[in-house]
Amino acid sequence: MPEPTYRDGDFVPTREVPFSSELDEMIAEIRAGNAPNIGRFCGYCSAPLGEAESCGVCGETTARTPAVDKIDRDLAQIYQAKRKREGLFVHLAAWTGILLATALSILMILFLPGWTKVFAVIFLVLGGYFAGVFFGNVLIQGVAYRAGLKMFAKRWTQWRASGGAAGSPS
């Protein structure tokens, strides 16, 4: 199974793992009902082509693989699954931060004397928020993105091996 390629820590799309962030956004808009599933897409990876004759993601030319006018439903589901995998990692990390802040607040309530327990409540609110943001967005975001790309690479390879082709009816 091909692995995603990284250069200086950034993902670089290849023919083996042709993930397109532009296509990812477009699929999200289509699934939300904000855009139609129509356009001009690469015949190999379905990345939006516009007027170009070669794909900037996978390098395929329209002379070798003709462009298609819609995104395959199965491919859209692969992109959606990648987003869900990333979301799972981020949400789990954020909830871990919130639960950690809650546990610390409870300890503060148990051990702080008298009126100083108010600091535990303030910490619960502010600490929970900032811990959730830090754990979910700062700490785990890169790991979540890489896990999503790895899952995308696996599912993309399976889809292509099963005869999946951009623009095929689904």
Write up what this structure looks like.
It is a single chain. With 170 residues, the protein is mainly alpha-helical. Helices cover 55% and strands 4% of the residues. The chain has four helices and two strands. Strands 1-2 form a two-stranded antiparallel sheet. Helix 2 (73-111) runs antiparallel to helix 3 (118-139) and helix 2 (73-111) packs antiparallel against helix 4. It is elongated and about 75 Å long. The mean pLDDT is 92.
Counted by DSSP, the helix tally is 4
Strand order of the largest sheet: 1-2
- Judged by helices, strands and strand pairing, the structural class is mainly alpha
Mean pLDDT comes to 92
Radius of gyration: 22 Å
H-E order: EEHHHH
Strand content: under 5%
Outline of the structure:
The chain has 170 residues and is mostly helical.
List the helices and strands and how they pair.
Layout: E1 5-7, E2 10-12, H1 21-31, H2 73-111, H3 118-139, H4 141-161
Highlighted features:
170 residues, 4 helices, 4% strand, mainly alpha
